[in-house]
Design a protein that fits this description.
The complex is a heterodimer of chains A (about 120) and B (about 550).
Chain A lengths: L4 E8 L5 E5 L2 E3 L11 H13 L4 E12 L2 E4 L2 H8 L15 H8 L10 H4 L3
Antiparallel strand pairs in A: 1-2, 1-4, 2-3, 4-5
Chain B lengths: L5 H23 L4 H10 L2 E3 L4 E5 L5 E2 L1 H13 L4 E4 L5 E6 L4 H9 L17 E2 L13 H12 L14 E4 L13 E7 L5 E7 L11 E8 L3 H15 L10 H8 L1 H14 L2 H4 L3 H11 L8 H13 L1 H10 E3 L5 E6 L10 E3 H14 L4 E3 L5 E7 H13 L14 E2 L14 H10 L3 H7 L4 E4 L13 E8 L2 E8 L11 E2 L4 E2 L3 H15 L6 H8 L2 H7 L7
Parallel strand pairs in B: 6-7, 7-8, 16-17, 17-18
Antiparallel strand pairs in B: 1-2, 2-5, 3-14, 4-5, 4-13, 8-9, 9-10, 11-12, 12-15, 14-15, 18-19, 19-20, 19-21
Classes of the chains: A alpha+beta (about 120), B alpha+beta (about 550).
Chain lengths: ~120, ~550
């Protein structure tokens, strides 16, 4: 695993679907997510995303690690968001298949989700 | 069945128009997410992991065929071809687009369905016995009283901003199929020695991080005073329930901290002082509601009964279905048929649009237009003549809806868990699938007998794990899914909260653990004992020994 990276995610306001910040804008493909190695850059992108109120709901940063050169969110929850339901492999972004989807499915990185913790309200 | 009148229809149309405008203002940027979110939630629309989720209220779990077809249509046209029936007898669509929500709600309104009060700190959809109106042992049709509660609680101005959400369940049978003792208010309708209808009023039940079995504060409230008494309870709760701490805001905490007797005294004082006649249901309205449910003209059919018995004797698979999925009806020539949404390996409670249409068609052709949702995430056709049970069985079988497993180990309650839910810490569905596969052999499942397994993906307990004969709770241990077990819970008339078994196990060990618990039960049981009875007789110790026999020391 590499040094810590971050990606910026949100749900699309109109459709509710999971989106990631890419170099070109917002994409449902985690494969295209822009990875920030500098927390200040990531924070600056988040601050901009918060202003995109007619496009996004709940933008937040997630931790990402590289395994064998492929990025994967470190939290299980964020991997499920990037894939779709694990019990319905015919639904969500995972239907695209390919090496990155496989990498997400087989990643064992274990960290608590860094996003929307207000909802989860841990002790 | 009760049909909405023109006032109801106009109210729904107004509400939907209002929400359509709110959605438009949100999408145009005239409203912020912070402003919009409470409005969206008041219309049952949550933002979940992958999408918005629309929770549609199914009043007291009762549907007519047109309503079920409308749900199927929504699943097909606006969602991904399926819906998820919940432990609150509601239906959730997991893939709703915000921009479609107003059209979906308009479509549902054409059949009198909506998503109002399926979220927020208000009185939620009242749940009830899925056998109401058909059960042999009921004192009355519980739906009549649920409908009265629905009318009273809909848009109730005093109770729209309670300290926390509020759930009421009603049964009119001694056999509790509605988990009434685990609700904020549970009502058991019965007749006293003089034959008068009245409610046992139970308050302060609930699950979540602080589970309680409710306490009875009235043994026999005359039925005609139901609404004033509910008002008195809600009023005390609204005034004295805690608003400073989300985790202590439910009525169960208030009842526990005051003590049931002191809480009851406050309710009685409020009730005696209030103008009850203004609140209680007028006799005429009660009669109107009662009449609107209509009496089904059940026909005697000894020939049908004979044919049914002959089919049972000659067909083992049908006989197994009858043994597990068919219950006695109050009329000797009818049956209550449970439709299993627990096909081995599928998601508990999920039904495809095609399956919904099949059940709607069967309800129309054979079931007097009456379909129910159970809190165990199955469906019920409550009025099937014995002559037709075979035909219904065959059509259900063809649609994958006849798994003969009601109340057996593979009839598992599971919340959506981390596969869908923004609150979850762990997945519940794949765990339930693993366990169900262990009991896929119907002989083994029947050998083990009644075993209610309930799984929640977080402490909020939507999967009722505290009430499971085996309860399973998913937790996040340093980012990995682990599962805690409880044993000896029950949501039925013998309600109890399960006791912790021991250390949590990883996901891939859960089904093994359930297997060992079932095997231990088969070794330990006395004649006639269910799993639950054996646990209650012996305590958890022998089960703990069996469950962790080969476990690596942690």
């Amino acid at each position: 695993m590499s040094a810590s990276l971050q990606a910026l995610t949100a749900n699309d306001l109109l459709t509710g679907e999971v989106v990631f910040r890419s170099m070109e804008g917002w994409t449902p493909r985690f494969a295209d997510a822009q990875l920030f190695s500098d927390p200040l850059d990531a924070r600056a992108e988040l601050d901009l995303a918060v202003l995109e109120t007619v496009r996004l709901a709940d933008p937040y940063l997630i931790d990402v690690a590289l395994t064998d050169g492929l990025p994967s969110p470190t939290s299980f929850r964020e991997r499920i968001r990037a894939l779709g339901p694990t019990v319905r492999e015919d639904l969500g972004p995972q239907t695209e298949g390919g090496p990155l989807v496989d990498a997400l499915r087989h990643s064992h990185a274990a960290a608590r989700s860094s996003g929307r913790l207000g909802l989860i309200r841990k002790r | 069945m009760y049909s909405y009148d023109t006032i109801d229809a106009a109210m729904l149309a107004d509400r939907n128009a209002e929400f359509r405008d709110q959605v438009a203002r949100r999408l145009s940027g005239d409203m912020s997410e912070a402003q919009f979110k409470p409005l969206r939630l008041m219309n049952g629309l949550y933002l979940q992991l992958h999408s918005y989720m629309l929770r549609v209220a199914i009043p007291y779990g009762s549907l007519n065929p047109s309503q079920l077809r409308a749900l199927a249509h929504v699943a097909r046209r606006w969602d991904k071809g399926y819906g998820h029936f919940t432990t609150r007898q509601n239906l959730q669509f997991h893939w709703t687009r915000l921009s479609d929500a107003p059209d979906i709600l308009d479509h549902l309104a054409t059949v009198g369905l909506h998503a109002i009060q399926t979220s927020g700190n208000c009185i939620r959809n009242t749940t009830s016995d899925p056998f109401a109106g058909a059960a042999a042992d009921e004192a009355d049709d519980a739906r009549i009283w649920c409908e009265a509660i629905r009318q009273w609680s809909s848009f109730h101005p005093e109770f729209t901003y309670l300290p926390r959400k509020f759930k009421i369940a009603v049964t009119a049978s001694a056999t509790d199929r509605a988990a009434v003792r685990a609700h904020d208010i549970g009502l058991v309708l019965h007749r006293n020695d003089e034959g008068r209808l009245g409610f046992e009023v139970i308050v302060g039940g609930g699950l979540g991080r602080t589970p309680f079995i409710g306490k009875t504060i009235r043994d026999h409230l005359p039925a005609e005073h139901l609404l004033s008494y509910l008002t008195a309870i809600l009023r005390i709760y609204n005034l004295e329930g805690r608003r400073d701490n989300l985790y202590k805001a439910r009525i169960k905490i208030l009842v526990d901290s005051l003590g049931a007797a002191a809480f009851a005294e406050k309710v009685e004082a409020e009730w005696v002082a209030m103008d009850r006649a203004r609140i209680d249901l007028p006799d005429l309205e009660l009669a109107r509601i009662r009449a609107s449910f209509g009496l089904i003209a059940h026909k005697s059919d000894p020939g049908g009964r004979a044919a049914f018995e002959a089919d049972k004797a000659s067909d083992r698979a049908f006989s197994r279905f009858v043994r597990n999925n068919v219950s006695a009806h109050k009329h000797p020539d009818y049956a209550i048929v449970s439709v299993s949404l627990k096909t081995i390996g599928d998601t508990p409670g999920d039904a495809s649009a095609d399956q919904m249409d099949v059940v709607a068609d069967l309800g129309e052709a054979y079931g007097h237009g009456d379909i129910r949702v159970t809190h165990a995430q199955n469906l019920v056709l409550p009025h099937i003549s014995l002559r037709d049970v075979r035909a219904v069985y065959e059509k259900l079988s063809a649609a994958g809806l006849a798994t003969p497993n009601i109340d057996l180990a593979s009839d598992i309650i599971a919340c959506p868990g981390l596969d869908y839910c923004a609150l979850a810490n762990a997945r519940a569905i794949p765990i339930s699938q693993d366990i169900a596969r262990r009991f896929a052999d119907p002989d083994r499942a029947e050998q083990v007998g009644e075993l209610k397994i309930k799984i929640s993906g977080c402490i909020n307990a939507c999967g009722h794990h505290h009430l499971g004969h085996i309860g399973i709770l998913g937790v996040d241990k340093k980012g990995e899914e682990f599962f805690q077990f409880t044993l000896g819970g029950s949501g039925a008339e013998d309600a109890s909260v399960g006791q912790a078994l021991g250390p949590a196990v990883p996901a891939d060990k859960v089904a093994d653990t359930v297997d060992r618990l079932a095997a231990a039960y088969l070794d330990l049981r006395a004649p006639g004992e269910r799993f639950l009875d054996t646990v209650r007789r012996l305590g958890v110790a022998p089960f703990k020994a069996a469950a962790y026999a080969d476990a690596d020391p942690a």
